[in-house]
Amino acid sequence: MDPLSSISDELAEINGQIADIFRALSNGFQKLEKIKDANRQSRQLEELTEKMRECKRLIKEFDGEIKNMEGRYDPNTNKMLNEKRQSLVKELNSYVALKKQHQANLENNKRVDLFDGPSEGFGEDNGLLASSMTNQQLMDNGNQMMDETDQAIERSKKVVHETINVGTETAASLKAQTEQMNRIVNELDSIHFSIKKASQLVKEIGRQVATDKCIMALLFLIVIGVVVIIIVKLVHPGNKDIRDIPGLAPPAQTRRLLWNAT
């Protein structure tokens, strides 16, 4: 009986699924070692890789369940669950490393097949063909192979140069865009400063207009007062309580009196 069933049914179920996948992986890698055909090996590795992806997903679910239950159990139980999770991860990593090893061996075998030829008798045919060639033919064949190799190298260089050119153009484009963004930021700062100065100027003009209005109102009151005094003087020329306004002539009646006295 799985000891995890006494802790959580979900954990026990996930652990059982992971154990089934581990058994399938073990059997699959044993079967892979007996397969000689490269294509069948590739298909087998793909199936094993898919099982490892599923196992990784289940381990994540297992880890999530452990984190959800950390506060429910005592430290010893939490420690046991964490150790169980680490053992599952360690076992999965061992299968991942085994898969990488088989993948590398498969790629090496494919490279050997490419250099050796499409069939098993191709190497022997090449040996027989070389033995029947003259020295000149062998030299010509060698020169042709070197020319083909040089052409392949030139093509590789061309690809590398094109990649470098694309990277250079991309870097230049990024630099131009960065400079343009810096100019935009500077222009925005200038606009903000101009708006701030304009706001200050509008406030100063507003204060000046308010001051001018006060002065105009005061002058208007003074003019009204002067006009009132003049009117009162004309209506009541004998009123001594109203003083003459400096700079204004005395009332007309006074001037008539002076003429009569003469």
How are the secondary structure elements laid out?
Layout: H1 9-34, H2 38-68, H3 75-116, H4 122-131, H5 135-235, H6 252-261
Helix pairs in contact: 1-2, 1-3, 2-3
Structure description:
The chain has 262 residues and is mainly α. The chain is 84% helix and 0% strand. The protein is built from six helices and no strands. The longest helix has 101 residues, at 135-235. The chain starts with 8 loop residues before the first helix and ends with a helix. One of its GO terms (biological process) is vesicle fusion. One of its GO terms (molecular function) is SNAP receptor activity. The chain crosses the membrane at residues 215-235.
List keywords for this structure.
262 residues, mainly alpha, 6 helices, 0% strand, elongated
